[in-house]
Amino acid sequence: MVQPTPKQMSREEKEAKVEEFQENIENFDVVGVLDMHSLPARQLQDIKKEMKEFATVRMSRKTLMNIAIDESDRDGVDQLDLNEAVQPAFIFSEKDPFQLFSLIKKNKTSAAAQGGEIAPTDIEVDEGDTGIGPGPMLGKLQQAGLQVQVDDGSIHVTKSGVIIEQGEEITREDADLLNQLGIEPLEIGLDLKLAFAQDQVFTREDLDIDTEAYRKDVEAAAIRSFNLAVNAGVINDRTASTIVSKAVQNAKNLAISEGLPVKETIKEALALAASSSRGLDSQLDLEDVDLDEAEESEEESDDSEDESEDESEEEADEE
């Protein structure tokens, strides 16, 4: 594990350390507070090598770090609370806080549990062959709540299941079981608690953003705002061509539906008229109508009307 700076420091060494911290606080755009608790020293050295291109990590006694914050001339930096970390360290960077948090997150690696840790997420055992032969392990997996069976000389998990829920303590027995299954549930890496930039403090919750979901939300908002602007007739560099195209299409559709004989729409208007006539023809079914009978019926109807008129005239004369 990372060990704090040895207690024996001369006055000059303490003053030099505080001066170094102050200089970094005032010269870097971002000042962050890391928690180095439970971080193995070997992994820390590897992480620092990987991060040296975009960040600098420095740690010492909490007292000296607080003195550097209190005596710094940078406005607002006193908002950093080192008590947010069990074993604090400074991280200095020119990246913005969100980029820094993302880069730190990407530099984390998985690690096996030893027992006594808190599960960072639900720990699940996937369905399939464990590669472990039958024996005591079969009972352990069953006690953990998994559905298992022996097949072809090895234990198979027949249905995926969570054996340790997020926030629960990983016991020594749990750790032994996970190690035999080859599951490394822990993440080893820097833990950024706070970041100070642009006169304000960002917490871990502020910085831990799902960038993919955020990108999709921004894209959806841009599409909705564009559609709103087009429908409302708001003309600008982005909407002008779409609004003009929409107006042209609306005018064209109107000319076609009204049968206006203009050059741009005459073909479509004739096609619409032809389609309408075919639709009317199919509804009337004119092929089943006897035109001769229709004419005779019409003539008889006319004669009947004439006779009725004559009778009406005779009755009127008699009166």
Cα radius of gyration in angstroms:
41 Å
Output the structural class.
alpha+beta
Count the beta strands.
12
Mean pLDDT metric: 84
Q: If strands are numbered along the chain, what order do they take across the biggest sheet?
A: 2-3-1-11-12
The coarse silhouette is: flat
Can you walk me through this structure?
The protein has helices at residues 11-27, 41-51, 62-71, 97-106, 136-143, 172-181, 204-207, 211-232, 240-258, 266-284, 291-318; strands at 30-35, 56-58, 88-93, 109-111, 123-125, 128-129, 147-151, 154-159, 161-164, 186-188, 191-197, 200-203. It is an alpha+beta fold. The chain has a 5-stranded antiparallel beta sheet, sandwiched between helices. Strands 6-8-7 form a 3-stranded antiparallel beta sheet, covered by helices on one side. Strands 4-10 form a two-stranded antiparallel sheet. The longest helix has 28 residues, at 291-318. It is flat and about 125 Å long. The model has no long low-confidence stretch (mean pLDDT 84).
Brief digest:
The chain is an alpha+beta fold and 319 residues long.
What's the topology here?
Layout: H1 11-27, E1 30-35, H2 41-51, E2 56-58, H3 62-71, E3 88-93, H4 97-106, E4 109-111, E5 123-125, E6 128-129, H5 136-143, E7 147-151, E8 154-159, E9 161-164, H6 172-181, E10 186-188, E11 191-197, E12 200-203, H7 204-207, H8 211-232, H9 240-258, H10 266-284, H11 291-318
Antiparallel strand pairs: 1-3, 1-11, 2-3, 4-10, 5-9, 6-8, 7-8, 11-12
